Amino acid sequence: MRRPEAPLQEAPTVTRSRSFALVLIAAVAVVVGGYLAYDNVLRGDSVAPLTLPSAAAPAAAPTTADASVDPSASEPASSAAAASGAAGGVAGTWTITSGEAGYRVRERLANLPAESDAVGRTKDVTGSITLTGSGDAVQLTAATVQVNTTTIASDESRRDNRMRSEGLQTDQYQTASFTLTKPVAIPPSAGAGTATNVTLTGDLTLHGVTKTVDIPAQAQLVNGTISVAGSLSFPLSDFNITAPNIGGFILSIADTGTLEFAVNLAKG
Hints:
Blueprint: H1 11-42, H2 77-90, E1 92-109, E2 115-122, E3 125-134, E4 137-148, H3 157-163, E5 175-180, E6 184-186, H4 188-191, E7 196-206, E8 209-222, E9 225-235, E10 250-267
């Protein structure tokens, strides 16, 4: 008697498909896990640039019901007083009471294709400025700023330790400074609390080298405090800086770096 034929065996095909799916899932997990490790652990700082503090909202314009205010005035008393007092009220010497300064540079970490920002900063910033003028005409006639480079720190101690003897060489060059060499006209808007663009021309000393630079900055006067913030990008070679070689951690560092600062000053 003839035996019935055995049914077709589909198990091997199903097994191969299932194995392929598992391999694909594993590969995706490795890629995603690698990105998360890079994004959360290995990538450089995602630190926002230093900027002016947020200005306080201007006082509301007085109403005609306020007997102490002339209703015929063409602008709110608060902004009018700030603008008209910009020269007479701010003339004199102002001293840095708080601030922050440091560097920003693009780097590529070892074995990773993407670049990121390395950011190092310090709050050891000192200095002063001198303002002169009459009426609405205000000039910045003198300014000096000093930064203690030995206290500059980033998010990575290996980078900071190497900067002591390479790159900025902070063990040898412990101070960076800026001295204004050209008077700057300060627009009335800065005295009224508006962030106002200015250009600071002067001598920047960094890594033992002094260069004349033009630093784009913003300034404003709010509640008796002058705030100034700015940044300058430049080739590292301009200041004889050689990018540090941090083997096994940083693969490459850009040839251009950025100096950033933000300071607050009080009169007297």
